[in-house]
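I hope you will forgive my troubling you with a question about protein structure. I am sending you one protein, given as its amino acid sequence and as whole-number tokens for its backbone shapes. Thank you for your consideration; the sequence and its tokens are set out here:
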Amino acid sequence: MSDVDAVIKALRTGHDGLAALVDGLGEDDLARPSGVSDWDVSQVLGHLGSGAEIASAVIHTALDGGASLVNGSNFAVWDRWNAMSRRTRARSFLRANESLVGLYESLDARTRARLRVDLGFLTEPFDVVAGTARLRLSEFALHSWDVRVAFDEHATLAPDAAAVLLHAKSDLLPWVSEAAGLKGLRAVIEVITTEPSSRFALRLQSPVSADFDVPEHPDGTLTLPAEAWVRLVAGRLSPRNSPAGVVSAGAADLDMLRAVFPGY
């Protein structure tokens, strides 16, 4: 299975799992506070639904030979989803996300390889399938957790999504971290994950980074499930939502790491 196949498969299993939950939600359930500050469950579903609609438009634009989307088109999509009732958001999310996942699944290898689109904010045309699918999986996996944690404080990320995302965010660490949270600390943390297993170095400095050059004597160690690492970097590993198996030592203070990765 190729990397892109693994991403699309994770999008499918993620959709099917979340759809099974959403199908059974009532009005009161949709009004519950989610894992996103100031958003209820329906608003998270609306965010995922509008994102699915926009991603589908990007792919269709590329398939039709277009270079980029119409400027301002995203705002019209967001406004329409924001105006929906809670129930309509939930139902519309199910349709929009099923359509997006089905679209990814319908593209053959040759089409996946050639599709490019100008998103307007990047220096070169974007790999539509591999690029947008990975971005979508990150967004979908984390926001799916935001929905699930409203009903289960011990919710975790799907294992297949966690496996794909484990090292996918390394390039984003400078952008999702707050060096001010280090309070002047400079340290190298050995991070050891399970399910899947991995070992890498987290460099706490400005900018924060990660690589596989683990020193013989790190300043601290952090052992945790891979899905918990992905949630930590995304600001979703509060003490209440930390699973068993998270062990820190030395300079790997969890409260400090939560301050370094406040969420996005």
Notes: DSSP finds eleven helices and seven strands in the chain. The first strand starts at residue 116 and ends at 117.
